[in-house]
Write a structure and sequence with these properties.
alpha+beta; 2 domains; 3 strands; Alpha-Beta Plaits
């Protein structure tokens, strides 16, 4: 006991204040605007706004596009089907563009 104060009780009381302060900081972070960890809604863009991906084919609908995407996947070419402002687009990486074009031109 230092100066008539129970040190153990003081430490426990002080720890409570620290926990409440940390909780307040966490809640402030959790409910702040603009720092969400939830995915933002997808934005539809032009076919040249997809970074490293290049358009290899413009299918008429998503069913045809998915069939062509699966054909490319079976041949070992990574492909994605996305919706652009002009309709669905089958996209591949630049390095796979020639291979994908050859595979799609040889379709039965």
């Amino acid at each position: 006991m230092l100066g008539g104060i129970n040190n153990g009780l003081f430490a426990v009381s002080f720890a409570g204040f620290v926990i409440v302060a940390l909780l307040a900081l966490f809640l402030r972070w959790a409910f702040s605007h603009g720092h969400s960890i939830i995915e933002k809604p997808k934005r539809v863009g032009n076919k040249d706004e997809y970074g490293l991906l290049r358009s290899v084919h413009s299918p008429k609908n998503h069913i045809e596009g998915e069939m062509l995407r699966q054909k490319l996947q079976a041949a070992g070419v990574k492909a994605t089907l996305t919706q652009t402002m002009t309709g669905p687009e089958l996209m591949v990486f630049s390095k796979d563009l020639k291979i994908a074009q050859t595979i799609l031109q040889a379709r039965p």
